[in-house]
Amino acid sequence: MERTLYEIRPEKRARLTLLDDGERCDAIDERPVEVITGEHYEHLGGGAREVLQGTGFGYANGGGAVRVASPPWHEDDKDGHYMFELGENITSRYKIISKMGEGTFGRVLECWDRDAQEYVAIKVIRSVQKYRDAAMIEIDVLRTLAKNDRTGSRHCLLLKDWFDFRNHICIVCERLGPSLYDFLRKNNYRPFAVDLVREFGRQLLESVAYMHELTLIHTDLKPENILLVSSEYIKVPDYKVSSYNAKSQTGKHFKRVPKSSEIKLIDFGSATFESQYHCSVVSTRHYRAPEVIFGLGWTYPCDLWSVGCILIELCSGDALFQTHENLEHLAMMERVLGPIPQHMIKRADRRSEKYVRYGRELNWPEGAVSKESIRAVRRLPRLRNLIMQHVDHSGGLLIDLLQGLLKFEPTERLTAKEALKHPFFREPSRHL
Question: What is the pLDDT of residues 399-423, one digit of tens each?
Fold first, then answer.
């Protein structure tokens, strides 16, 4: 039987995903290079060095310029994406090994760094001015994060370098593993064990607390923007599946478990300093806080709402609020969490008035776009029931934490630092 729109995960904006069968150029040994007498290279000004790099020249660690084959010129595609062939170079320093992913911003390429002798990920931004502008904002944020975290212990992506290559901003970062969303997807949306959710949640909150200390708000927290540091995993029997599959000959089904629980937060292109202009709408739909929908303004607590939604998705396997429509989204919130406070409804901005009835309650179900929409909301369980369906231990503590993160009133929501002190994170892990 075909599943309806509301029974499947709605399409989200373009994700940075690891390719299942992407080509990869594994050879990293260089072609013969022409060493150019260049003992004066170090005395060149920055502009001259950039010109030299643009021609395909680099410089060896021992001094002297080295000629590496310059990539042939390719026209960008119609959307401004950089076109390339595996094995080509980006400047003289980086050799393209594989394409790791693609998004609205551009492409991410796995490259070999000849200078550092390591693999890196290079985010190659589309040659479209608005994306170039956003990339420069992201670079500014990444620099701020790196300057205040020399050891890289705050679980934020590490910026290694950036440069402008053929009208494409290139952001060089450490190479990481798949996103938590991609890991779930490749695991057929089997949820993570609660002990892993605890470790992911702790690190995520530490990175959010660090950003908030620097007066930065991420505004786009979601599983796609949380990457495992390592791609390695093991396969273990999934007894929950095999126990009710009587037709299975072997009686065994397996699920993937990451070898390491270490994660890093990425994608700071939408991050905003508290003192900067705040656009009216932020966050990907499923992780958007109620104050954003009502047009009440937003600040640090909108990140904590997103964290709460993410933790539920990690331990259930599915996005909590699977919708693309504001009134249905708000109705789903009430179904899972209880009534929205009247004072928030009364303060709703003009664009949100149509979701409200008599100035004191949601216009639901009268304002629903369809009967299927009403049924989709009714299918959702209360928060306590939802968590207890999926968590075999620590359920009570996790529910209490989530209730603090998903308070409707932003000023009553737990801060990242407060959440880190919650008893849920003091529970010993049973089997990591």
Answer: 999 999 999 999 999 999 999 999 9
From the CB of residue 277, how many other CB atoms can be counted at a distance below 10 Å? 6
DSSP one-letter string for 180-205: HHHHHHHTTTPPPPHHHHHHHHHHHH
Residue for token pair 């600040």:
299
Q: Are 136 and 129 in contact, with CB atoms under 8 Å apart?
A: no
> Which of 220, 238, 267, 303 is labelled catalytic?
220
Known catalytic residue at 220: yes
CATH class of the domain defined by 23-31+68-174: alpha beta
CB atoms within 10 A of CB 16: 24
**Residue 371, Cβ density class (10 Å: 0-12 exposed, 13-18 middle, ≥19 buried):** exposed
| pLDDT tens column, 137-158 | 999 999 999 999 988 899 999 9
CA distances from 34 to 58, 67, 68, 71, 358 (A): 11, 5, 7, 16, 78
Answer CATH for 180-426 from 3.40.50.300, 3.60.40.10, 1.10.510.10, 1.20.1540.10: 1.10.510.10
> How far apart are the C-alpha atoms of 93 and 83, rounded to whole Å?
18
- This model's pTM is above 0.85: no
For the chain, which residues make up each domain, given as ranges?
23-31+68-174, 180-426
